[in-house]
Amino acid sequence: MVKKVALIRGDGIGPELVDCMIKVLKAVEAKVEMNVCDAGLEWWQKHGGDSFIPKETWAILESSDACFKGPTTTPPDPNTPRSVAVSIRQRFKLYANIRPIKTFKSAEGPLGPVEFVCVREATEGLYSGLEFRISDDAAFAIRKITRGASVRVAKRAFEEALKRGWSNLIVVTKRNILKETDSLFFNSVQEVGREYPNVTVEEYYIDNFTQQLIKNPQRFNRHVILSTNLFMDIISEEASALVGSIGMVYSGNFGDNYAMFEPAHGSSPKYKGLDKVNPTATILSGAWMLEYLGDVKRSRAIFEATEEVISEKRVVTYDLGGDAKSSEMADEIARLAAKKLR
What is the pTM of this model? Predict the structure, then answer.
C-alpha cells in the first residue's frame, strides 16, 4: 500500500538535499506518495503571518502517514515565529527526537570510532516558547518540565536500548543546580526504569558529560543517552563532530501515532545552490522514514549503499575527502541501492 508523506523542502540547501533524497527513493521504487508543501523562512518572507507554516500545509501534514522536513532557517529575531521543527513537534506531540551517532567505515573522526544514540525530549523544556520581557533590561524564559512528557520520552529511550540489544542508559542533567526541574525529569526516568531491570541507568551532569564525550568518547559506545530538550540539542551537535560532521547525522522525531524525519543540520544559506553539501544525513533520514512506514527492505538497501559509498571514498563530497557534488554522491548511492534490490 502506498504511504502518504508530507514533504517540506526547506530553506537554503534544503531543496537540493531533498532532491538527493527523492532521487534515491525513486531508484529503489519506494511506495510513497510525496505531497510537497510550503513552510520555512523563505516562504514566510514572501507571505508573512504568525507562523512559518501555512494552514494548507497543516492540512497536508494531518492527512499524511509521516512528514519529511528538509533543513529550515530559524532566525534569532524575536519578532519572527517559532521554528518549523518545534511547531510540528509540539502540534503532533513528537516527544522523542532520536539521533543515532555512529562512525562510518573509512570516515573515522579524530577521536576514534563511536556508536551511541541520543534521545531528546522534544516538546518542552526551554523550547516551550514561554518567554517574556518585563522591561527593556529584563527578560525571562520558563523551563517547563512535566512528569508526563518525561515518562513518555524515558520509555522510548529504554525501548531504543532494548531494540538495539544494549543494556546501558545515561541520563544527562544539571540536578545539583536545577533542583526542581531536573529532579522531576530524573525521578521520572528512574520510575520508568523499574520496568526495565536489564538496563542500567547512570546519571551525568551536563558539564561533566560534555567533557567526557571528548576525553573518552568510547566510554559511551552502545549506550542510549537521554536528556532534556536544550541539553540534548547541544550534546548531539557536539557528538556529530566525533563522526566527521553534522552532515552525517540523520534523525527522527517520534510520537505515539506520527513521525517527522529530518537531517540534524541546518539550512546553511551560504552553500545554497552550490551542490556541494554532504547529502548523507538527508538520504538516511529518508531511509529511516521508509523503515517507519514498514518498508524495511528498501530502507536497509539505502543504508548499506550509503555505507558502501562512504567506505569506497570515490564519489563523496569534500568533507569526506572527495570532490563529488551532492547530486553525484546521491547518484552513486541510488545506483548501488537499486542494485542491491535486484
Answer: 0.96
